[in-house]
Queue: 3 jobs
Job 1
Amino acid sequence: MLGFFVLIIVLLIGFIFFIKHKLNYNNAPITVHQSFPLAGEKNIIMCLFPHPDDEISVAGTLYKLSQNTNNQLVGVYLTRGEAGSTGGLVAKEDLGRERSKELENAGKIVGYGALEIFDFPDSGLPNTDSTAIKTEMLRMIYKYKPNIIISFDDKAGLYGHKDHIVTSKLIQHIFRENATVDSFPIRQLYCPTLSEGMLGIALSMSSTFKKNYPKDPSKGLPAASFAVEISSVGDKKLQAIQAHRTQKSTFTDVFPLHDKVSPHFYFYLFDREYFALLQKR
């Protein structure tokens, strides 16, 4: 009988290692860092996203960055997420206000030292005056003077959201326009991405990815430049997810079973956040 239980344990451990390997599979090897690699001693990292909850894709990394007093984290959000799901918790007309509050709570968890939320239309950025959006982006850049920006990529927008893609295109346009301006503070622009293994699993399990992710491989996510190990701060990432309580159905879809098992076990498997370098100077 003891031998049977030992066999089951061995098989279970083997299965866990197999799943972990599958999640982090890439054709090319990727360097895994314990924290986000930074060149300077003091850094201002700005997260520039269209929606409350977009920071969840990098929440573990942000929390780790916030634990170093030489780093300042700033969150800038273009919309209040009023086009999203209410989760049955608030009236539709109150959703933008509620999601702003959720973002404030999540921001405290990941370590934002400052938070700015604009009122551009959720799911309407492609039809919004790009000059108006870029003007506010530039104002935030010169107000906080970040040397690093984390936003989305301009092809897939992580999973095909048009607001994500527009946000990335505009900030990259700003970067290129100002790359030779001495007073322009940004040195590097990054986006969250996925390992090849994670993307494959997302496309097989997540209705969000199945519905929205580009079918054309040339319009997919950029290859990862590196990954950050987050298993030790999985509980913080879970807390940030839970802060966005109206969006529970979305997170149940993109992080299946995250609310059913221990965060220590869940983020032992989903133990990395991947990043791609989009621009540098």
Note: The domain at 40-280 is CATH 3.40.50.10320 (Rossmann fold).
Job 2
Amino acid sequence: MPVETRATTKTNRYNRQRVEALYVSRNFTHLYLGVLKARNWKSKEKRMRRSVAIIGTRGYPSYYGGFETAVRHLAPYLARNGWDVTVYGRAGAVRLDDPTREKLVTSRNTPGLETKSLSTMSHGLTATVDAIVRKHDVALIMNVANGFWLPLLWIRGIPSVVNVDGIEWDRQKWGRVAKNVFKAGAAFTARFATRLVYDAIAISERWERDFHRGGDFIPYGGTTAASVDPEDGLLKRQYVLLVARFVPENTVPQFLKAVEPVAR
């Protein structure tokens, strides 16, 4: 076979091996639903269930943050719709006695270094290795810090969907070394991820500009809360509430400056 023909065949074969995974935004209302499409999917139809590994959170069920909230709703949804779901986590962070836990979801804890700078990456590495050994059909990755391990999935032929989260290398909470690590992880993510997910248009535009990678925009969602009376001293629809950590990127000073004109 001529070299040009072999190259064309290889490219077409790579293009066919893609994933349109089922995903939900971090607060779990807006869904991105697709079907795993791979080169050998027809032969896999005979298997009992498609499998997905969810990597990069503290596990299932966990109540730590936004990614964990998403997984608490996404994992059961997938499991009830024919997926074999494995959520990788950390020892001590998972509530296996939670009465709302979906027993169809498999929770697997892998070891890691419990330090601020290395916990995400070390747990991500051990979870990725375990997922490779088990040869899941697709991997859903949270956080670009785990982008360093995407080549391992790529070599194994496991498509990946990555929620990139925020622009971590711009955040003032991180030192220079940590910022460089996040930026390098983002570069690996842009190179090796099958599909990217953004939760803000501004973030998608930043990735387009810095890494020339597009993706799927899935906005924040939420559940509808029951109507409750405001606290004593407040009138309904006549006050403004801010819920945020007091860090510079959450623009708390700008909020306080805007309160007075908003209240007029």
Note: The helical segments are 3-16, 41-44, 66-80, 119-134, 150-156, 176-192, 201-211, 252-263.
Job 3
Amino acid sequence: MKKLGFLLLFLTVGCAGHYNVPMVDVTATPPDIVQKIPLNVAILITDQMENYTFTGQANESSIYGTYTFPFGQMIKKNIFNILSPAFNKAVLVKGKPYPQDIDVIIVPKVEKFQHGYDHAGAFAQRTWAVAKISIKLAVYDMKGMPVWEGIISSPKVEKIYSMNDFLEATGGVAAESVVAALQEAAKVITSSREIHTFVSTKGVSETIASKPSGKELPIIKSDVDKPFFGATDKILGDNDMAVVIGVEKYQDLPASDYSSTLKHGFPTR
């Protein structure tokens, strides 16, 4: 009976067809964030990313065929609502020029996706659409240097469907898997040691960068710069000793070619 259910399901939806999975609205609730990260972020969704689709087949025990998922649109629709509460400020951008007050750029990418259909009961009375996705998020500073990156996977998402709405259910579990992965990503980013290290060093960098470029640094003087004796004064007595160190080569200064001859003029003891 179970095999007959599989056969009826297979004949109903078609034989190894191609299916364009629709966009489905799902609830994109951000996770609870204990403390916001004090950064202004730009979430980069280029036109190429927005139009990105994933095409693949369902798993072996599923409805046969090829499926195309509009993951670029799914990510764009949900990523801002989920990630923005984790930061001081967030904006969606398509590319340069970025807003001047932005500290880091977040770039999403679909790393892996699996979907399929599970069946139970005679004549496939109970059927589920199943999906799981892995999304890579990379965080860059404004010089393009990587700050953090990670691949975040959603849990297995399931939804019961009927033969009349299996594509709608497929789009639903795909969208829910995207939301689940982004929710987990928000929690991982806010607890990232690399992100918090960047935040702590960012204040130091900004303090240095905010100094007026035309302001001269203070000149540090020492007693060596102004000797207390005159050129004709005798500073060493007959019973005094002097240790003279002549250094000819320096790491960051011009060479002093005749330093080794400084010992001349002093009596040898």
Note: The chain has a mean pLDDT of 80.
